[in-house]
Inverse folding.
């Protein structure tokens, strides 16, 4: 077999493997999945709060800064759910309630609602309209809270 053909075959095998690999294979151990989702939520929350500081008037409104942060929030909103895999319930340092797994469809719907709300915030951010941004920020915040109410341990 030619070297080129061998290389092509092995590249195909690796690509095929990546497609069929379960999500678990992306994490070496369950704790890594917990750290991953917490990290994603943490970064998302940080940038969401930067927008909140402006919509609430704690720091001066800066349309360009809102845009940068809303874009990061939308990107981050896609990530955490890859970490909510089987075998990571009650693992390590998690605040996730068992309902994430026992009411999976409801959890997915709440995640989708949040992702839609932050997508809208990102769209509205591009207009630079302070009132619209404030309203979209409020809706997005409600979608965060709704999921916390049902699926996150109550934090003091
Ligand atoms: C934030 C943040 C959240 C949401 C939530 C809104 O700034 O980190 O998780 O807003 O508190 O209710």
């Amino acid at each position: 077999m030619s070297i080129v053909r061998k290389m092509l075959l092995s590249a195909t095998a690796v690509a095929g493997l990546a497609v069929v690999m379960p999500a678990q294979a992306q994490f070496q151990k369950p704790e890594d999945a917990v750290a991953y989702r917490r990290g994603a939520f943490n970064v998302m929350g940080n940038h969401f709060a930067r927008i909140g500081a402006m919509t609430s008037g704690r720091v001066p409104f800066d349309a360009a800064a809102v845009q940068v942060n809303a874009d990061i929030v939308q990107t981050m909103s896609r990530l955490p759910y890859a970490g909510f895999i089987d075998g990571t319930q009650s693992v390590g340092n998690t605040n996730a309630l068992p309902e994430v797994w026992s009411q999976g469809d409801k959890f997915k719907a709440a995640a989708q609602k949040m992702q839609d709300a932050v997508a809208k915030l990102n769209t509205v951010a591009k207009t630079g309209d302070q009132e619209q941004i404030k309203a979209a920020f409020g809706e997005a915040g409600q979608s965060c809270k709704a999921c916390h109410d049902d699926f996150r341990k109550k934090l003091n």
Residues 121 and 136 are 5 Å apart (CA to CA). The two ends are 65 Å apart (CA to CA). Confidence is low (pLDDT under 50) at residues 14-18. Residues 30-55 form the longest helix (26 residues).
